[in-house]
Amino acid sequence: MTAPPPSVWATLQTLGSSMDFQTKVYRNDTSGLYLWVSYIKPMVDIETVARSIFPYLFHRPFSSLEDIRQALPIDDAYISSDPNDVKAKLLEGYLFIRLHETDETGLLIKAQKTLERTLTIPEVEFSVVGPKESFIESLETNLYLLRKRIPIDRLTVKMTRVGTLSKTKVAVVYIDGIANPDNVQTVLQRIEQVEFDEMIDSSYIVQIISDNRHSPFPQLLDTERPDRVAAVLAEGKVAIMVDGSPHVLIGPTTLVEFFSSFEDYFLNWTIASFFRLIRLFSVTFSILITPIYVATLNYHYELIPKDLLGTLITSRREIPFPPILEVLFLELTIELLREAGARLPTKVGQTIGIVGGIVIGTASVEAGLTSNVLLILVALAALASFTTPVYKIGNTIRLMRFPFILFAEMWGLLGVAFCFCIVMTHLLYLTSLGRPFLAPLYPPRWRDLKDALIRLPFTSQSKRPETLRPEQPIRFNRKKAKEKRDIDE
To answer: Which domain of life is it from (predicted)?
Structure first.
């Protein structure tokens, strides 16, 4: 036999086992009828109830729930007898009002408490020029920041809930008529198929819906800047916003986007291109400099200039360890300092990072554990890794150095080249929402290179990225954008 469907009364009894669930009985002064008001106290704004609800319940005559609903100055109030609906709304911060204690039908009134922090400047993607607003943990506020920048009717928001326990609200945002429907459908389908109990942050979403969940490379770009999300939506991308998370996911994305700061668009295109090239060089230097050091000292002495060879021999004359152990010791020390600085309070973490680096570096050289040349190289590599504007790709770069070091120890520069081929093969197979992750480099999209390794002027970017396959590829008229007319013409 199948179990009988749950009733509203049974739902209230279940919620009543929690001490923060309250049911109070009030008497209407005019009609003499009694009201059973149920609610979860931490979820309800008591001031709103006292100011906007109770005065209309106790001092006006009524004979039915519909009379109460009509008298209330609150739009979000309706009559319901669905147990699941009543339970969900009570958990969100609604009042449930009945005329009799055992009634299965009641009036649900929104009285939700909203606590959120004020808008602040971006902390991870800070820029000297440009807007200083960042997303916060409120989904409604984040949608407001987005609609304020794109005030058009084609900006579409699809809402769903994820998490069997958390019931977290997730919004998929795109511009209808520009975004490719295949990309939108892919995102919606993957989010609706998520099977997880607790969805706390957007970082959970990106790990679950990514094309390759085992890849160290992030396949969706996360940002805390509303201006950046508005800009990529205009290109034809899709944004994923999670209630309770100040970071918004963007897709499909490409590898080169992780090395472009949004501040690049606030600078002259020549300066922005120069900074992008510096970042790409810094990332390459950060990954390869210590593996090349190990490979050169173990297998390729002949590649070292004679003037520099004497310096290296002098610095390593009293080092008792092979280059691989020397490098691993310093690299792990840098990682320990990074983790310690990140986990400690801000002021203490800064002190640990600076003082710890100076003390440990100086002591290790004086003790003969590492060479001063390697200490300089590792410090420069750590400094170069900080130039990445996206935090998650910075973590990937930190991880990639270690397999390169191991391959360099085994086979020298041939091992470095072999490890590079493995990484490139992985990147060639990697996709973001089904789109090539290495685009526009491979497959080559020459038109999209205008905003990849370098950034050309805005007048040259009259078409949206070909990789996204947008429904409306033309952004503006290029010829008119290049025209310069004075007022007397």
So the answer is: Bacteria
Structural contact between residues 364 and 329, judged by C-beta atoms closer than 8 angstroms: yes
Query: Which of 108-117, 261-270, 334-343, 354-363 is predicted least confidently?
Result: 354-363
Please, what is the Cα angle at 199 between 197 and 204, to 5 degrees?
115
* Position 449, amino acid: L
pLDDT in tens, 265-275: 999 999 999 99
Task: Please report the DSSP string for 191-220 in residue order.
Answer: HHT---S---SHHHHHHHHSS-TT-SS-SS
Per residue in 144-191, pLDDT tens? Answer: 999 999 999 999 999 999 988 888 999 999 999 999 999 999 999 999
CA 236 → CA 209, 210, 450, distances in Å?
19, 19, 17
What pTM did the predictor assign? Answer: 0.87
Torsion of Cα atoms, 346 then 350 then 355 then 360, to 10°:
90
CA distance 171 to 416: 43
Cβ contact 64:31 at 8 Å: no
